[in-house]
Amino acid sequence: MPTVLHILGWRLYFFANERNEPMHVHCDNAEIRCKFWIDAEGFNLEMEYALNASLRDLREIKKVIYEHFDLIVEAWHKFQERKYGKDV
Q1: pTM, 2 dp
Q2: Contact in structure between 14 and 4 (CB atoms under 8 Å)
Q3: What's the longest Cα–Cα distance across the chain?
Q4: Domain segments of the chain: what residues?
Q5: What confidence tens digit (pLDDT) does each residue in 2-34 have?
Q6: CB 65 within 8 A of CB 47
Q7: What pLDDT is attached to residue 2?
Q8: Could you write out the three-class secondary structure of 7-70?
Q9: Long-range contact list for 24-32, CB < 8 A, 24+ apart?
């Protein structure tokens, strides 16, 4: 589970065994867990799930993802390339 970013108590990371899923990022902060699908071309997010998250928490993590959008997208491609030998 490579970590992409630690910021404001949030850990943003990928799971290594989700090859068939579109680009996404998992986010944890204490007991909060959430997952967002990433539309790199449209610069957009769609929440897959959120556990124990308030609206404030979700606003905060979305802001973090958007502020580091390019970094997350680049890390996704690099991780997929290293793991599977090609850009996904």
Answers
A1: 0.90
A2: yes
A3: 39
A4: 3-84
A5: 899 999 999 999 987 776 889 999 999 999 999
A6: no
A7: 87
A8: ECCEEEECCCCCCCCCCEEEEEECCEEEEEEEECCCCEEEEEEEECCCHHHHHHHHHHHHHCHH
A9: 24/48, 25/65, 25/72, 25/76, 26/1, 27/61, 27/64, 27/65, 29/57, 29/61, 32/57
